[in-house]
Amino acid sequence: PETMVFVAAAAVSAGAYGAYKGGQAAVKGTKQKLNDIKLERNGKAEYNAKSKERASRLSAIEKKHSASATASTSIAGAAGRSSASASASAPGGGGKSVEERLAERRSAKAAAAATSGTAGSKKKGSVLSRFKK
Question: Which of 38-52, 55-69, 104-118 has the highest mean pLDDT?
């Protein structure tokens, strides 16, 4: 009997929490619709401009996502083809690993930073020590 009370209390609180969260989502959607209606009433031109701007931002984001997805697949395909051709042409049986290429890039960046003079410009000490007087 005691566990039934506990289970019932948990079910009631879970249902109440779900209703609360659902109410929050409904309020958010209703506020957005009311704002759209107010914009439409106040100025049809302003409403149309803002809706076009919103649509253009969304389409730009979608284009970036689709471009990055196609670029990543094309890069992966090109990397697979280049590693296959490198391993076929190399007498040792393979090209450089990813770790080796990353190490080369990091060392090149470090060398470039050292020659530009920005390597020693960082302040020493902790963040809190800079504010103590």
Answer: 55-69
Ramachandran angles phi, psi of 92, nearest 5°: -75, -15
Whole-angstrom distance, CA of residue 118 vs CA of residue 115? 8
CA–CA distance from 61 to each of 54, 64, 65, 67 (Å)? 11, 5, 6, 10
Closest CA to 40 of 26, 25, 56, 51: 51
111 neighbors 105 (Cβ within 8 angstroms): no
Q: Kindly state the helix (H) or strand (E) to which residue 8 belongs, with its residue range.
A: helix 2-42
Structure tokens belonging to residue 98 = 């990813």
Measure the CA–CA gap between 52 and 54, rounded to whole angstroms. 5
Interacting residues of 123 by C-beta distance below 8 A, sequence separation 6+: 130
- Measured in whole angstroms, the distance separating CA 42 from the mean position of its chain's CA atoms is 36
- The structure's pTM equals 0.26
Half-sphere exposure of 126 (CA within 13 A, CB side): 3
CA Rg value for the chain: 29
